[in-house]
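Subject — a protein and its fold
Encoding — discrete vocabulary of local shapes:
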Amino acid sequence: MKSTHVYTKPHLKEAIGIEMSCSLQDKLIGTDQGVYVIGTTPPKMGTEDEVMSGIADKLLERLDRIAFDGIIVYDIQDESTRIDTPRPFPFAQTRDPRHYAKLLHEKSGCGTITYNSVAQGSRQEFEEWVEETTETYHQNNIVLVGAPSSEGDYKFSLNDAYQSLEESHKTIALGGVCIAERHQKKGDEHERMVTKQKEGCHFFISKRFITHKRPSTC
């Protein structure tokens, strides 16, 4: 099982005047404490709605005795450019994470966070994605990620996405990623986080992998 720790931007609530609330978005935007969410991925592409509903039921049944603040649904992308060795198995696309997040929320009442990888699209496509995400899928907590590597012909940068989202004036809790192993190699993850805060990020996702023996953090 994969759990995820969320580090929120300190004292933002006082700056924007949000009152205390138990909603996931208020926790993401308005506290200086960590938020504990469970990470999952959508079913593979081609999974029928009825089957996906059953998968969601099984997940929620497993989570029934766990105390957590919400569920995050990842947007799985082909990241073969990040590694030099061939993948052990072919990349498989998934159902739209927004659809799965909406389904999980409707079934459980839990707040959800939706990932989106922005590098493969254009500005227009991203703006359409934001509109559909908020109005059709009712997802207002999102995490944006950029290109998996500097290689490749990418149309749209993460900075472009931040600027576009700011201009949209949508009420969104915007998250970024905090990658511990990247800090081990480059030593500048804290600088990346500060920059992303200035560009509008309210919280950061850090992954924690848990086994039945003992937890470990990466």
